[in-house]
Specification:
Layout lengths: L1 E10 L2 E10 L6 E7 L7 H12 L3 E4 L12 H12 L2 H16 L4 E11 L1 H12 L5 E5 L17 E7 L7 H13 L4 E6 L12 E2 L4 E2 L2 H18 L1
Parallel strand pairs: 3-4, 3-5, 5-6, 6-7, 7-8
Antiparallel strand pairs: 1-2, 2-4, 9-10
Helix pairs in contact: 3-4
């Protein structure tokens, strides 16, 4: 039976609250996947993906990067929450690494077998975990941002890296995808890039329907990406 448990923790003296999703019928520690939210904050969508990860036999931990109860309801609110971290990648890196430490210390977590997945802003965060040399075996970015961190990367990057990308994503253009490939090649990473044609940003989000802004759910791309993730997690964990 899948069970959820709220996990309170702190960063810079401020409260954060994650959510652990796991199969309580499973004995002993399990490999664990960090699920990194989009620009809105810890959300129902993120929790939905966590439950799908748990159904594969892993623990899933919904990360809270903004702070307990902080969730954007409008684009303006989301920008206000995201920009301080997106604009200060050193601060973001510290917050991500501390979150890994929090999760590895939880009961029933196999600290030697951890991975991270992220969506949009969370995809950038997943890549930043790999860049930082976090104690994760693999990271997966879904329609994530490919902006470089502007910080030294641990080289060679040990975590395996996979990115699922819509080729028509206005927030990560083809030249950004090529730059991603060059960066992770130079860093010695084992990386993959799966790009889907006729696919825009937020293709995993069933509620995304603003094609004029470059946002559109794609059942086809979402299904292919999730199938790929199941194989990737089985490989790294």
């Amino acid at each position: 039976m899948t069970a959820t448990r709220l996990i309170d923790y702190a960063h810079d003296g401020k409260p954060h609250q994650g959510l652990l999703v796991r199969d309580e019928a499973r004995a002993g520690a399990a490999p664990t996947v960090l699920v990194l939210h989009d620009w809105s904050g810890r959300s129902e969508s993120q929790e939905g993906f966590a439950h799908r990860v748990a159904a594969l036999g892993y623990n899933a931990f919904c990360v809270d990067l903004y702070g307990k109860g902080l969730v954007g309801q409008t684009p303006e609110e989301c920008q206000t929450l995201m920009n301080p971290l997106a604009g200060d990648r050193a601060k973001l890196r510290a917050r991500l690494l501390e979150t890994v430490d929090v999760v590895t210390a939880l009961p029933k977590v196999d600290a030697a077998r951890m991975a991270a997945i992220g969506f949009c802003f969370g995809g950038l965060c997943a890549l930043d975990l790999a860049r930082a040399g976090a104690a994760v075996k693999g990271v997966a970015s879904f329609h994530g941002l490919f902006l470089t961190a502007g910080l030294p990367s641990v080289t060679p990057i040990a975590a395996k890296v996979i990115a699922y990308h819509g080729w028509d994503d206005p927030m990560a253009k083809p030249e950004d995808a090529v730059a991603f490939a060059a960066e992770f090649t130079d860093a010695g990473a084992d990386w993959q890039l799966h790009a889907f044609g006729d696919t825009k940003h937020a293709f995993m989000n069933e509620g995304a329907d603003a094609p004029a802004m470059g946002l559109k759910y794609s059942a086809r791309a979402a299904g292919r990406a999730w199938d790929g993730l199941t194989r990737f997690l089985a490989e790294v964990l």
